[in-house]
Design brief:
It contains 3 helices and no strands. 0% of the residues are buried.
C-alpha cells in the first residue's frame, strides 16, 4: 500500500468514528437541551482550539520597512 491509500483510509475511518460517536453518545445528550446551552460547549471547544494554535504560529516578519504611508500602501498591494 502506498502513502496516498493509507492517509485516505485513515481519514475515512476517523470520519466514520467521529460520526458514530456523535450519533450515539453526544446527540442524545444535547437533544434534550435548549439550543444555546447545547451549542455553547462546541463554541468554547473551537474557540480555544484556534486560540491555542495561534500561540504556536510564528509571527510574520516584514520584508520591507515602509517609510511613509504611500510606501506601506504600495507594499500592501502585493505583487500586482
Amino acid at each position: 500500500m502506498n502513502n496516498f491509500i493509507i492517509i485516505n483510509l485513515q481519514a475515512l475511518t476517523g470520519t466514520v468514528a467521529i460520526i458514530l460517536g456523535f450519533k450515539y453518545w453526544i446527540q442524545p445528550r444535547i437533544s434534550k437541551l435548549p439550543i444555546h446551552e447545547a451549542l455553547l460547549p462546541f463554541v468554547y471547544l473551537n474557540t480555544f482550539r484556534y486560540l491555542g494554535l495561534s500561540f504556536m504560529a510564528k509571527a510574520p516578519k516584514p520584508t520591507v520597512s515602509p517609510r511613509n504611508g504611500f510606501t506601506s500602501m504600495w507594499v500592501g498591494a502585493g505583487n500586482l
